């Protein structure tokens, strides 16, 4: 995933972790470089993106 603020790549491992600070569970992915809270992609979008990556030559 690419950070929407600074443009740095966020590792896939980071996108599966929640920050633990938000009430009710965090649904954002915080960039380790700048701290920007990127919205987490939904389950459907994640599946579509994953299937698109698998079909690349």
Outline the structure in words.
The protein has 57 residues and is of the alpha+beta class. The chain contains one helix and two strands, in the order E-E-H. It has one domain. A hairpin with a 6-residue loop joins strand 1 and strand 2. It starts with 27 loop residues before the first strand and ends with a helix. It has a two-stranded antiparallel ribbon. The relative contact order is 0.20.
Can you give keywords for this protein?
57 residues, two-stranded antiparallel sheet, alpha+beta, 2 strands
Set out the fold topology.
Elements: E1 28-30, E2 37-39, H1 43-54
Antiparallel strand pairs: 1-2
Helix content: 10-25%
Number of domains: 1
What portion of the residues fall into strands of 2 or more residues? 5-15%
Low-pLDDT runs = none
Q: Major beta sheet, specifics?
A: 2 strands, antiparallel
Question: What structural class do the secondary elements suggest?
Answer: alpha+beta
Cα gyration radius (Å): 12 Å
Instruction: Please tally the β strands and state the result.
Output: 2
């Amino acid at each position: 995933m690419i950070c929407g603020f600074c443009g740095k790549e966020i590792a896939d491992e980071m996108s599966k972790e929640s920050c633990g600070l938000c009430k009710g569970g965090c649904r954002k992915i915080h960039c380790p470089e700048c701290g920007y809270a990127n919205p987490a992609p939904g389950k459907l979008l994640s599946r579509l993106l994953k299937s698109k990556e698998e079909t690349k030559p």
